[in-house]
Amino acid sequence: MNMNTVKKEKYVVDLKRLQTICSRNYALLLRLLPLEYIQGQQWHIELGQGLYFELSVSDISPYTEQFTLQQRSTLSTLVGQMDIEFRLYHDAQMVEVTKYQQQDRIRPNNPYPNDKLHHKDEKTQINALLKDWLNLAIDHQPDKIDDRLLKNSASS
After folding, report:
1. Which domain covers residue 54, as residue numbers?
2. Which of 21, 42, 69, 84 has the least CB density, counted as fewest CB within 10 Å?
3. What does pTM read for this prediction?
4. Tell me, what DSSP letter sits at residue 139?
């Protein structure tokens, strides 16, 4: 056996961490949303300095709901675009990202290195990104529904 050989450990998904993030996302999203909303409803969430997000309800079924979140900016040359789709599971009380930047098959673990340069724990990182965004949106609004920050497009 060669002493210089380094055995690489296979990445194992940290399910507890991923589920914790998804459960936290559920709680954060409920803090952000009004109590009642309908399919197709949209909100315009202002974060200041030309940065805003559009959150829309794509689908509602008895136990799940699908949302789309799009980052937008009036300063598009300075800030990149971000598109996230996520599913809310009421029975499990979790939110899971299902699509990120046109990538609709987010694997919980990726071989590394890989041609598309995905991280080993890409699914966990993308769900953590959603958690950070939800925290940011909540931090920028003093009340659950503040008409200055969370604008319902249906009422505009």
Report:
1. 44-138
2. 42
3. 0.76
4. H
